[in-house]
């Protein structure tokens, strides 16, 4: 049951984000030959004639409402557990407490496994199934593992998950409850990635690592389409987003570009802000140093498991988006995150994850730095539910 | 921004579920003078002329889409965190494993605080705010406390939560993160209820206990409207539901009655099945004994915190619905619940709560008892996310 009457379904090709080289989109492909992420491209000149914002009214309340700009062609492969179309909650009391005119919270905790990772893995697993992958694997600091396990189960594909042995107990039990094969190891997500690569090389696992296949970013980009649609077909002044691998920020930036090519918006963009923990802030350091890419962060440490990412293959894409948008990057202490989680709870009723707390805690910092003004209508991303981090909070939150 | 062009918004009156006596709906009222639950009634003869199933298309993706049959009149009091309109997931692999033609899972774990309790507390807190309550209080075995805390925070009303000291740590941290006042005590939810009543008597707290105010059931009834709408405006053959206080089962039964009065359906009803743990099964015992009400269950014990309810004020309403529908009641062992949680995870990608596992485990039992047939199109209610029970599972689920 497709909303598309014409025959332009799916991507037109894949493109290397570094060299611009193009490839056939209908084959399983990871990184480009240049070792860089691939983006799915669409025939937007055709699509723009058939797909307008007004067409979205009354569509299904999940990310598949944007199927014209998503790559999955076979309806049976459009796996769904109700991912996306999360509430964009107006938070007047929170705005008052933080001295802002208007704050919105995009509550990604309401995804099927309680985090924004569901968007990316929904698309990546759906597309892997469509293109014939038989076994999936993913290195994860936590939430991505839950999401991969859930969509693997939904699609009937076995999933191997490799995670650090300090992954929250909640997430471990969730992954096991979803029937995935879980390997816990001593190390960071980057070490887990090596194990997955070996499984890919020797056992034919399909590697779902962040940006090492082209489709997780396609799922994440729907956050950009949703913010635009939920604000009544316009963009906010600023978006504050916690970046580990950064797929969400990169994906939204890609979505804005697609919207402009479809004539939905002009050249305007929100200021894009990246938030990282002081214990692992490679992108913040690179932004401050003015470098094109980020250096590996030694001894990464933070209770925000999703931000314990010392090196990201998409670092240069994040830095591009932050700079082109006139945004910035800021690092937050774990204790400040926990405090902000409590403030968000009291003022909105949303029980945020530490990453969501980091984003809120960044508001005064960014104002102090002169990068964010009181009048900037700002969207804060709470990327997951606080339920997944219970017992990990560094300070007494009672 | 109301979808109602005419002036029949809200309830017409309150009615005692035992005596039929009626009362003004625009005042704060708990139990009836007879000490029984009150139901909100609507002018359905007028509403049926203005509200038809087809009107629902394209409405907001939360329970407020049914505002014509909800009691809150003031839009500013319609508190919302994105509750309801949860996915009704077709589960063919699960159906095959359990020898059923068709199984649907209504995944209430996707509510704002991860459980179906959000529906009831959304309505109860919205209505309490509208009618001028200043402080709220609730006894809870867990999830209802999270929901009350969330909507209290959303509405800016202080909430006092009284819970047993064996309440899951996850829920305790969530409630504290939402800024509510939490009192943990040695005892069952029935004991907690006594403390709340004292707070109501001496401190003017508004008591949100199950069915002791008329509006939680109004929120819960929306599950019945949603199943009807999501199945394409028809009802399933059977509904299997875990009953603690039983508001959900009672609410759906009320919804079906309203739908018939509005001419949406005829006299047909799904078979309604109540599932309880073997360690606390007062309704199952009463159904077996053929009594009109249930006796207090001594030494209640189960890891399904939401079903550790030894006495329910709505027992007679549950038993009526079960009997009038030609359904039944069955008790499930904790270990069988945990096993079924794993089966649901593997076959659907949904990480269920123990209560959801109980409902699935009831399928073979009810078939064995001859109450459910392989051909019955059945809706299973997973009333919450497994995330809220992590660490409580009685058997190894790895």
Describe the structure.
The structure is a homodimer of 398-residue chains. The N and C termini of chain A lie far apart (49 Å). The radius of gyration of chain A is 19 Å and the shape is globular. In chain A, helix 9 links the parallel strand 10 and strand 11. In chain A, the strands form three sheets. Chain A has a six-stranded mixed β-sheet with strand order 4-5-13-10-11-12, with helices on both faces. A four-stranded parallel β-sheet of chain A has the order 8-7-6-9, sandwiched between helices. The first copy, chain A, has 398 residues and is of the alpha/beta class. The model of chain A has no long low-confidence stretch (mean pLDDT 94). The longest helix of chain A has 15 residues. The first copy, chain A, is built from 13 helices and 13 strands. In chain A, helix 3 runs parallel beside helix 4, helix 8 packs across helix 9 and helix 12 packs across helix 13. Chains A and B meet through helix 4, helix 5 and helix 12 of A and helix 4, helix 5 and helix 12 of B.
- Straight-line distance between termini of chain A: 49 Å
The main sheet of chain A comes to: 6 strands, mixed
How many helices of chain A does DSSP assign? Answer: 13
Query: Strand order of the main beta sheet of chain A, please?
Result: 4-5-13-10-11-12
Helix content of chain A: 25-40%
Largest interface: A-B, 51 and 51 residues
H/E element order of chain A: EEEHEHEHEHEHEHEHHEHEHHEHHE
Q: Oligomeric status of the shown chains?
A: homodimer
Mean pLDDT reading of chain A: 94
| Strand segment tally of chain A | 13
* Poorly predicted tracts of residues of chain A: none
Structural class designation of chain A: alpha/beta
- Over the alpha carbons, how many angstroms does the gyration radius of chain A reach? 19 Å
- Overall form of chain A: globular
In what range is the share of β-strand residues of chain A? 5-15%
